[in-house]
Amino acid sequence: MTNIWNTYQCEDFYDEVMSSPGVARKSAEKLVSYFKDLSEETVESHRKAAESTIKEMGVSFTVYTDNGNIDRSWPFDIVPRTISKSHWDKTAEGLKQRLKALNMFIDDLYHDQNIIKDGVVPAYVLEQSANFRQECMGISPPFGVWAHICGTDLVRDADGEFYVLEDNLRVPSGVSYMLENRAITKRILPELFEEINIAPIDDYCTNLFETLVALSPRKIKKPVVAVLTPGIYNSAYFEHAFLAQQMGCELVEGSDLIVQDDDCVYMKTIAGLERVDVIYRRIDDLYIDPEVFKEDSQLGVPGLIRAWKAGNVGLANAPGAGVADDKVIYAFVPEIIRYYLKEEPLIKNVKTYLCYDETQREYVIENIDKLVVKPANESGGYGMLVGPHSTKKERDHFVQLIKDNPRNYIAQPTLALSTSPTFVGKGELEARHLDLRPFILQGKNVYVTMGGLTRVAMTKGSLVVNSSQGGGSKDTWIVD
Amino acid sequence: MLSRVAERVYWAARYLERIENTVRLVSVYDKLMFDLPKGVGIGWYNLITINSAQASFDERYKVQNERNVVKFLLGDDTNPSSVTSCLKFARENIRTSRDVIPAESWEMINELNLFVCENLQQGINRSQRFNFLDGVIKSCQQIQGLMMGTMPRDFVWYFMKLGRNIERADMTTRLLDAGVRAQLQVWDDHDAINGHQIVWGNILRALDADQSYRRTIRASVKSKQVARYIIEDPAFPRTITYCLSAVSESLARLPNHKLVLNELEDIQQDILKPIDYSDLGEPMKELLNDIQLDLAAIHTSISQNWFTNQ
Lengths: 480, 310
Hints:
The structure holds 2 protein chains of 2 kinds. Chain A has 14 helices and 25 strands.
């Protein structure tokens, strides 16, 4: 039997599992020795088992451009990615700190805007923000919290430290895949769960449910909580259904809800109208209420904002929370943390150049072939340029985009993203780049998932991990 | 419970039931083929006629032979009542109501879907057809069993029970119709006495009702008795009478049921007024057709009362 690790190359980047060729990191020792002893046939049968489990579980996501094929199976690699518990605990503290500060920041923006008056964040950032909602000025949601659910993307650079790549404060998705990945791994590698202390992750839905229930305006025993989905054609529909099922609450579409003259939200049931207390909405701000935002939205509920402003329904995340989900704001987060919490940030930001600033813009344009350029308000990996992998034509195009709308672009150095062993063929492991999206909840309490969703760029050398762009995923183990 | 969800689980149950019964329907003729004397042409096209699908069949196929009929019923995506189409609709309904029905039912319907996709050719070819039909029925029963054993008896359950029994009653009338038509052909073609027994025996077997028929009737298989049994027996769960009382029980559990329940009771009385079984030809076909219309009327009332209200 040949040792599968003999040919595994990990020297080029920080590897999550191997510290040097043939030597496992402490958190991965048992994992590595387990795979070392497996025959090629067993590995293959594990991979097949994972594949068929995914098909049976119907774990899928949707790509808009796939005409006529709405469900695509979730590409999953069976080798888990490990992180030591002590390192994770520190990271988790940093994530909590970050979300707390961001929520104070959002609340400040919709009230006195002290941070701008004090000159910590320049006024232009807010004036040209795509996700600032004037309609939300003066509103005070419970606990001063606007973003209750946050998915923060972390990457590890060559130094082995975690850096925040972006904060997703609008409708972050992926948590169901994190949970399903664990369920799949438990089925195919049960032996390892006996041997290794792997932190469980299945309390997420309970915590989410508690976070939501706490937002109920009616102090009743069983508030009615609903997950609002854009419907079955949305790429994250699987997740919406999954979360509703796990929390035991209603999965509703816009057409199931109605706001009546009393400014309360009701759902249409077989026994007539029933009041809804809290809505976990998975629809973007602009589509949520045609009375206030896009008039032609078929997805939303007319009057929803009216009901929310009247304090008759809890909305998570609150409308307008996306103002902090802006890559220009991102650059100021370390300052935001210092300003509101009087603390040093526990997790670093990636160095970010703001194209609005003339000096920085010049630097970006000169060095565009070495940088990653991102639009300020896109998600899903759309509309970005990875300098080192780009053509001259693409670079020229981006230089023009930056010049036309400098506020909308930032640039970051290309990171040496960490890698992890991934099966690329029969019995063949190769290093693939990955990131990590933990989920943070804030309501009455703050909670961070144990690990998060690890996304893998399945193509050799690629740095793009988004599922909509051909990425896959792995189970993530926080190992004690 | 959301009206939209009620509608989806109701249809999920109907489609699941339709899959199982379409397969049972094919299995009747499949079995007849083995048993009937050589030279008796059983008209596979009957299976198209009883589903009122002549127009869409004729559009797609020139030859009304066994292969085309079976293909149309099992695997033709352009036929909205084929097994593969029903499976698609059932999956879509289950996929979109996963928050209220057991999570495993989604896994099981995916398994069934994979089974059908991978083995469809076996169902169309004659040599392996039994295994295919048997596999689909077992898989449907597995899903029913899961639901029986794990679902709370709440509104979701009663809407599924409604859908299941309305569809089952409807499909039972079609199975009977298939028998009536096969019998007429046997009569035309051949020495009919033995032929009748073969036809009706297979109808019973397709419903898995042969054993209970014998124990209840305690007599040999005779056409009139079989027809009466399949329509009127109160205890066997695929008879018209049984299905209608299951519908009635479910209706009584739902909010604001009065109007729909009254309508059903009228229909029950109307159907169960003494039926004349002396002529199993045209009069029986008409009766079965009337029952199908009544069931459609009940469906419309259910839909208006709970799915599209407000």
